[in-house]
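User: Sequence in, structure out. Go.
Assistant: Echoing your sequence, followed by the structure tokens.
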Amino acid sequence: MSEFTAVRAVSQSLKELLEAHITDPTVQVFLTSPKEMQQNNQNGISVWLYRITRNEFLLNQPRRRPTSGQQSRLPMPVNLHYLVTPLMSDPRDEQMLLGLVLQVFNDHATLRGSDLKDALLGSDEELRLSFEAPSLEDLTRVWGALQEPYQASLTYLVQPVSIESDHEPEAGPPVMRREMLFSQVVE
């Protein structure tokens, strides 16, 4: 399971994954917004975490029991949304980098083991990386918030990232009786 540093660790994992597959030494990967890169006159790829949402599918997972009389608090499952934007002086280079990002993230759609960095290094976490297709309205809002003209970019979703509770496990009654019922539906 992951601590609060998991968000940073996912970003670092994506950055290092791209850096491992970029052969051009002049192309750097930054974890800053495209606007910050442009203000600093930086060329490369922006991998910007622009949105965090709750993963509604994992909210009702059963609690873990470290011992028979304790229950762990539920972790907060979140989805991380990244805007990936190449910023180069030549639009052809930007398009080439878009294709490279698509290829690398498609080839590494599941991040685990040595793909994980920072606080997730050595953990048994398994994260899914998927290409998103936000509406034009959603993209317009993101670029409007940046106060920058629209730039060709990709959006990716990384899930599930679990943020563990900092509280100690709480007392919980042990399971006293387990019952299983089966029935057959006959038509």
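User: And one key feature?
Assistant: The beta strands are 28-30, 44-54, 70-71, 76-87, 110-111, 127-132, 154-163, 170-171.
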